[in-house]
Amino acid sequence: MTGHELAPHVAGVRGRRAWEMLRPAELETLLDEAPVAFVPFGPLEYHGPHLPLGVDPLIAEGLCARTAAVTGGVVLPPVHVSAGVLPLRYGVPFGLESLRGVVRTVLEQLAGSGVRVIVLFSGHGALDHLHVMRHECDRLM
Description:
Elements: H1 3-10, H2 24-33, E1 36-41, H3 55-71, E2 74-75, H4 96-112, E3 117-122, H5 127-140
Parallel strand pairs: 1-2, 1-3
């Protein structure tokens, strides 16, 4: 079985634009067509008994995938490092500096890979989380 046969099952909603399922030549072709990388962010946290713990990153991933299908580009796997997570059971919180380091690394690596447009999309609305993401984007520009 090749990676192409696995991609729809493993990559799910991101389909043929899932960064981790692409071979280098496929990634280069997609980035030549549209040098855009979408990076969904969201924590694993409790939102009530009716929702999955990953609802924030699932929403972000779905919106990134739908946008990439229209505009082109590729979609990275969701990043679950998030700040401002409520201290409830099942949550996986990270501090602001951990988030800052991850965002900075992702931005620098993508920019160094020839990606011209990087879209960080958060399904999580905590202000401190969003401020860190915004600050790191501004710093790179």
